[in-house]
Records
---
Amino acid sequence: MRAVVQRVDGARVTVDGETVGEIFGEGLCVLVGVAHEDTVEQAERLARKLWSLRILDGEKSCSDIGAPLLVISQFTLYGDARKGRRPSWGAAAPGEIAEPLVDEVVARLRAAGAEVATGRFGADMKVSLTNDGPFTVQLEV
């Protein structure tokens, strides 16, 4: 699994003009990509890492201060544009594999006590955020 994590001061995702997920104040906006071979164990590791990642103000984590997370599925994180001008999406898992694993990341975060908002899997989403820093990291588990 792969994630791009941005420290934000508020973020929201809309589908067809309707807000489907939103967080306010300091938190994380997380784009999650899933590959064919990814497992539930990796989803659990990613959730633990996101909950404890010390990238908020004062080197705090979401778990330290109860900061919210906005988690959005993003198959394009596995796009490969090394050849030609069109990315290949072959490394990205299909929806029937990816959706349950993204849902598992969200469920594990919530079980740990996190406030988690989400996008809508497979939808044409518009993401708005205020990147705080800016501060962006990529995670692989």
---
Amino acid sequence: MKTKTLYISILFLLFAISVDAQCAMCRAVLESEEGQQTAKGINNGIVYLMIVPYVLIGVIGYVMYRNKKKAK
């Protein structure tokens, strides 16, 4: 079972896709700019802010799992 989870995790890491996280209004304003550097920066910032809660929940879940396993 552990090897299956490891393989699935590696699969998800290898096949990452690019995501656009801008809302429609932000996209409309930023698309008018030449070069799209500001749009790329805003998009990267939004994705970064979306990742933080998931990482925190993962760490808390891991700590809870580890504490339950030690209690047994």
---
Amino acid sequence: MDIRWQKSSFSEQPEGNCLELAAGEAVVLMRESDAPEGVIATTPERLRALVAGVKAGEFDTLL
């Protein structure tokens, strides 16, 4: 499988640390650009739920 990683458009520098995503068949892969050997796989639905929770501030109390 040819994995095509994509960085956020908010990433300021090509070598800046950021989250990278790659879409596979029924799966989304995530990794940190400064530690690309660690890859997390999830479903699109679970990633959408995570992003919605972050936007809603559900994790703000963890900081």
---
Amino acid sequence: MMNFIKNFRKDEDGAVTVDWVVLTAAVVGLAIAAYSSIEGGASDLTSNTSSYLDTRNPATVISTE
């Protein structure tokens, strides 16, 4: 039993897996934060563009031909 514990303590194979899990979770968290920021700005831009276009009347556009 003591040999098993000593070998378990020396074995570092699982540490790399833990590192990758933590790094992947950090990347996913940053992606979600970036998406939230971009989505809010895109929604505002779309709304403002729609409001601007609603005030325009295509029939009153003067042709330069």
